[in-house]
User: Fold these one by one.
Assistant:
Number 1:
Amino acid sequence: MNPDTLNSEQKPTLPASSPGVRLLRFLSSMPVAIALLSLVALVSMIGTVLVQNRDQDFYLSRLGPFWYRVFDALDFFDMYSAWWFITIMGLLVLSVTAALVRHGPRFWKLSRPLRTMRPWPVKADGEFELELEGQVAPQQLEQLLRRHGFREFRQQPEGKGILLLARKGRLGRLGFFLVHGAVVLICIGGLITSQLGFRGVMNLAEGESDNIVYVQNGSEYRRLQLPFHVRNDNFTINYYNTGMPREYSSQLTLLEDGEAVAQKRITVNDPLRYLDMTFYQASFGDAGSETRITLRDLTRKGFPAQQVESAVGRTLEEGSGMKLELKELRQHNIINTAQEEDRQQRQDAGPSLDILYQSPASGNITYRVYLAYPHMLAFVPMGAETLTYANLGFSPADGRMMGLLAAYLEAVNDIAGEVGPEQRRGAFASALRRMEIPLEHAAELGSRIIHAEQLLRRHKLPMLFTLDDFVPKMYTGLQVARDPGAPLVWSACLLLVIGLYMMIYMHEKRVWLRLGDNGHRLQIRAILSHRDKHPLRNYLQRLQTELAELGQKARS
Amino acid sequence: MSETILPRSGPLHRDNGITLYWLGMLALTLGLAGLAIYSQLDRLAPGTPLINLLSYKLTGYANVLLVVATAIYLAHLKFTTEAVGKWATAMATVGTIGLLVALLTRWFETHQILEEGHVPISNLYEVTIFFTALTTLLYLILESLYRRRSVGAFVMPIVLAGIGFELWLASKGQAGPQNLVPALKSYWMHAHVLANFIGYGAFAVAAAGGVMYLLRRRAEQLGRSGGIALRVLPPSDEIDMLNYRAIAIGFVTFTVATILGAAWAYDAWGGYWSWDPKETWSLIVWLTYAAYLHLRFVKGWAGNAMAWWAILGFGVTLFCFLGVNMFLSGMHSYGSLN
C-alpha cells in the first residue's frame, strides 16, 4: 500500500527527524550499545593472548615472517594504543554520551520532586483491585506506604473517592546519570593520562643522580628530561631468613639546582610523590659490583693461579682466545635441603658469581662460584641447560691439595707406556715427595686426590675459580609517572559505584491508589522504572496482602 | 501455587530463627577460631610442615563436610523432606564455619611460622579455600532469605569443583604458607581480594541459577507434570529473579574490586590501568555483565537468554580468576602455579 493513501485513523507520522537526531538515536540504541560492549570485550582478548610491546625478534621468532607482517600491519603488537582500538573505545564513549543526551532530560524530570498530581495511568506495569472488608482512610494508606519507604505523596478528590499517588526511589533515576557519566569521565581520564601524562623508566646506580627518563613508545624509547635531578642514595634488598626477597627499597633524593627538595625511602607499594610526578620502585639490577676472583688454569702445568679484580658485566680476554665474562652476582642462593620430596626446607647458600668461560678448545661453560662453598663445583656444561653440582673435596684455594693434584697428574703424564694401579701408586708417592708431605697421610690424601682427578677428568673442566671478595653495587630501576588523568578517574570511579548502587537498589516506584466506594474499594496501578517487572509483581503481591489485612483491621 | 520467595509480612520483616542462625554461626566461627588459636599458642615453630598445621587439618574436615552437604543437597532433590533438607543445611553451615575457622587459624599460624604473617588470601590455594567458603556462605544467605534448598544442589557442585582444585594444588605442594613477595604487601590487597571473591561467588551462584532455570523451563515445555525438575525447582520466575539478584550483587562488588585493583596498581606499578591480561580480563567480565544488565533493564530480557548469559558469564569469570594465571603471562603471575 502506498503510504500516502493511509487513512486518518493511522498514527500521525512523526516529523522527519534531522540526520543529527537520527544519528543520536542510532548511537544510543540498545543494539549498538550491546554490539559495542561485545566488540570491546572480544578485541580486548587479542592483547591478552599476544604478549604486547616486545621487540621485533621476539615476534618474528614466534610468528614467522608472514604472520609477523600481518599482525604488524594490524598494530597487534601494541594494540591498546592502535588507532582502531581507540576508535572502538571512542565509539563506545560516544554511544554512552548519546544515551545520556537522549534520555537525560526525561530522566532528569523524573528525578525531580513530585510537585503535582499525575493522572491515573492508562498503561501500568502492574495493577490489582481489592474489596476492603472495613473502611480505610487515605491517611492509613499513606501510613502503610510510608512504612514501605514511600516518601512522596499527592492526593486529590476524584468523583466520590480519592486518588492517591505515592512515589519512592526518586534518586534511583539519578543513578543513570552517575553511572553513564562516570564511564565517560573514566575514559576521558584515561585519554588525559595517555596524552598528557607519561610513564617511563630510570635506572640509577647507587650514589648516582640523573634527570633523564626513558619513556616507552611501542617497542622504542624516547628520552624525557625532568626539571630536577633524582639521586639514588642507596638501594637495599631485605630478605626473609629463607632468602626470599622481603622488600626492595631505595633512598631517593630529588635535587633542584643541587638542593634537596624531597627525600624518601620508597618501597614497592609506597612511592615518592613530588609535584605532579611519582617515583615507584619497579626493578633493580647489578651496576657493576666489584669482584675479586682467582682462576686456576687446569690446562697448564702446575695449575697456575691468577688473581683478577674486575666488575660484574665486564669481559676478560686472553691472547689464547679464552674469554671470561662476569655474568651475575647473586647475594643469596636458596636451596631446598629437605630429604623428602614434598617437604620444603630452604637454606641460603650465600653469595655466588656466574662466570661464562669461553675458549676454542673447551667451548662454553658457565660456572657458578660460591663464596662460602669453594669446594662445590657448579657449572653448566657445554650444550646443557641446568647446573651440575660436584664436590671437589677441597677448595681450589687449598695450595697443598691443588699442588699435590697437579704434581700427581704431571707424574702420571710422565709415565711412559701402560698406566696401571702400580704406576699410579708410584706417581702419587713421587708427588708426595715433591710436595714434601709425610707418607703417613698417603692413604687419606690418596683417595681424595683420586676422587678429584676422576671428577675433573669426567667433566673436562679447563679451569677452576674461587670468589675471594666482592663489593656489591646495585642500581635501582625506577618507574617515573605523571598522571594528570588520575584524579578525574578516581572521582569518576566513586560516582560509578554510588550510581550503580542507586540504579540497582533504588528502583523508582510510582503507585496510584484509587480509593472509592466510601473507603471500601481500592484500585491500584503501579509503574516501575525498570523493564524488569519481577520485583514489582512480587511487591504488589505483598502490598495486596497487607492492604487486605488493613481492611480486616478496620472492620474489627 | 508455589509459595512466594519473599518474606510474607512487610519489608521490615524479621525472622528470629534466621537472626539466631546467623548470630550462632558468627559466634561459633569466632569461638572455635579462638579455641583453635589458643590451642596453638607456643606450639608452632618456624617452618612447621604443612601437614602438622591445625588449619590444614581443619580445612580437610570442613571439605569432607561440604562434600557430604553436596551429596545431601543432591539427595534432597529426590527426597524433599524437611529432615533431609535440614541435614544438608546443617552440613553446609558447619562446613563453612570449619573453613572460616581454618582461614582465621591459618592467619594466626602464618604469624607463628613465617617471619611476617599475612591474611591468608595471598596465593592460589588460600584464595580457593576463600572462594569455596564465600560461595557456600552466599548460598546460605540466599537460602535463609528464600528458603529454597533446591538451589543448593546446583551451587554446591561449584563448591565441590573448588575443593577438587584445592586438593590438586595441595598435591602439587602449593598449599604451604609462604612469605609474601614485596608486590603483595599492600593494604589494598585485602579489600581487593575480598571484593573480588564476593563477586566471583555471586557470579557462581548466578550460573547455578542459570542451569536451574534451563532445566525447569525444559521440564515445563516437555510438560511432564510429575517430573523431578517441576517438583523440586522453584518456579522459573523466581529462579530468573535469583539470577538477576546474584548478578546485581556480583556486578557491584566486582566493580568495586576492579577499582580497588586499579588503586593498588596505581600505588605499586605507577598506573591505574596497564592492559595487563588480568586487568583486561576483568574488563571483559565487567562488560559481559554490563551487557546482561542492559538487556535486562532496557530490553526487558529475561528467561532462557539471560540464563545462558549467566552461565557463559561465569565461564568468562572463571577464566579471569584461573585461566589468566595459568595460561597467560602478566603481572598477576604470583597467583600462578609454579
Number 2:
Amino acid sequence: MSALNRHILQSQPSAARRWEAAAVWLFRSATYVILLCGALVFGTIVFKGSKTVFTTTAPFINVAFFTEAPESLYVFEYQGQKREMGDREFRAFKAQHPDASNVKSESYVYSAGGIFPCIVGTVLLVLGSMFIALTLGVSAAVYLSEYATQGRVVTAIRLAILNLAGVPSIVFGLFGLGLFVIYLDWNVSLIAGWFTLALMVLPVVITASEESLKSVPKGFREGSLALGATKWQTIRKNVLPYALPGILTSSILGIARVAGETAPIMFTAAYVVRDKLPWEGLTSVSDFFFQGVMALPYHIYVVSSKIPQNEYTERVQYGTAFVFLMIVATIATSSILLRNKLRNRYKW
Amino acid sequence: MDIKTSFNSSSSGRSIPVTSSPVGPTLIDIDHVDFYYGASQALHDINLKIEEKKVTAFIGPSGCGKSTLLRCLNRMNDLIDGTRVAKGQIKIRGINIYDPSVDVIELRKRVGMVFQKSNPFPKSIYENITYGLRLQGRSNKSDLDAVVEKSLRGAALWDEVKDRLHTSGLGLSGGQQQRLCIARAIAVEPEVILMDEPCSALDPIATVKVEELIQELRTKFTIVIVTHNMQQAARCSDKTAFFYMGKLIEFADTRAIFMNPANAQTEAYVSGRFG
C-alpha cells in the first residue's frame, strides 16, 4: 500500500538520506559533548568556588577572601567546641583566652585568609605584559605589513612568529629564566615576568594586528598618500585607528589567556608567598619593577600541588580558581565591549 | 551597458569642444618613458606633453597602460614593490619627478588624485576635506572652515552637504562620495588633478555631475583623466591620448582623435570595432 499511496515529492528511503541523518546526529552530539564538558568544568569551579567566595550572611561576599593575604588555618578544640581560625585571629584568641594558649591545634598552610596579593600580582602582570606586547607587537606588525618589502625575508619572519606561537609555555618560562632572570640579572621580578609573558603573547598580537591592518581598505592609504601625507601620517591617522578595534580585541583576549599560564611566571615573576604588597616598602621606583609578586595561577598551582591536600585546601583552590575565572571573563567581556564601541565610531 | 549607451547617445555633442584648442604651455613632459612591473614592461617609450589648464584624456582597452602612466605622474606606483621607470623622464615644470632630489610628499601635494573607487575616509565630511590641510599643519578654524566651503563649492557639493558637514562622508551617495573626493583633492590646491576612471562606478546622473564639474575645474587645474568610456573622453577632454599594449598610439586634439584619427588602430577603437 505504501508504494501506491506515495506522491512524487514524498521522501524515499535511500542511503544518502540515512547518511544525512547520521551526519547530523554525529555533529549534534559532538556539539553537546563539548557543551557538557564546558558546563562540567565551569559548573564545578563555580559551584565549589562560590562556597568560598560567597557567604550566607550580611554582605554575602567573603570580603576577607578578596582583601587579605593568605595565612595558615588553625583547627583546634576549645571547651568542647571545634574551631577554625586564621593565624592572626588564633593569636588574638590565645591572648584573650590564656587557658587556650596550650591548646592542641592542627595547622594548614594557606587555607585561611584571602588572595588579595595574588589578585594584585596578576593584574600587574597582565597590565605590564599587555603594554609591552602591544607596543612591540603593533610596531612589528606595522613594519611587516606597511613598510617591509614583501619577499622571502618577510615570509621567513612571519613563519618564525607563527612558530613562536607553538612553543610550549614552559619553554618560555625557561627562556625568561635564562635571559631575564639570570643573564640580565633582573632576578625573579615583575619586569622579568612582563617580558616573558609579552614574548609569549607576541605572536597573537602580531598576527591579529597584521590581519586588522590588512582589512583596512587600500583606498584609505592611497587617498591619504595622494594628499601628500607621509607613510607614517597615513598609518597613524588613517589606518591604525580603523585597525585598532581588531588589534585590541584579539590582543586582550590573547593576553587574558596567557595570564592564566603558570609555567612562564613560575621561574620569572611569581613568589609562593610574599608578605609585602607590591607598593609596600619601596625605597626607589626601580624597586617596584624588580620585585616578585604572588599571582593567581601560581597560587592555584601551589595550593593544589605543593601543600598537603585536605578538606581545607579545596576551599582556597576552588575559591582562587573561581575568582581567576571571573577576572579573565571580565577582561574578555570588556575587550569585546571596547571593540563594539570603537567599531561603531569607525564604520565603512 | 545599454542604459549608459542610450544615455550617452541622447546627450552626445553636448560638450565636445567646438574650437580646436591652441597649443598651451606644457606642464607635464613625459619624455620617452619605459616602465616595468618587476620583469614585465608595462609602458614602452611613452612620449607626450600635457598642457597646462587643459583636460587630457587617456583612453584605450584594459591593460593598455593608461592607469599605469597616470599613477606615474604622482609616483603612486612607488607603493607597488618592484616597479621602476627604466628609461626616460617625467618632468613637471622642467623638474624630473623621479630625480632623487624630489620629495614625493611635495610632488603629491601638487599633483592630486581621484581614484576609480571613491574612497572617502570614514570620518566626517569636514574632516575629509581638512585632512590634507591638517597634514600641512594648518589648524586655524576659520581658515579651515573657509577652505571647506570653497572646496565643496568647487566640487559642486556645497548645497547638498552644507547642513551635515559633521556627519560621516560614507553616508553620502556614490556620486556625492566621488565629488567629496574631488573636493578633498582640490582643498590642498594642487596644480594637477589626476582622475583614474572617476565615473566608472557611478550611475549616469552622477556621471553627468562629475563631468560638468570637470568642465568647471579645467579653468583652475590641469586635469588628466583616464577613462574607459570614449564618449566621456569626447565630452570632457581637450586632448586625448590613445594607448594600446603599453604604447602611445596617437595623441592629438580630442576632436581630431574622434573625428579624424590618423592611425588605423585608433580609428578602429574609437569606432568601437575592438576594445
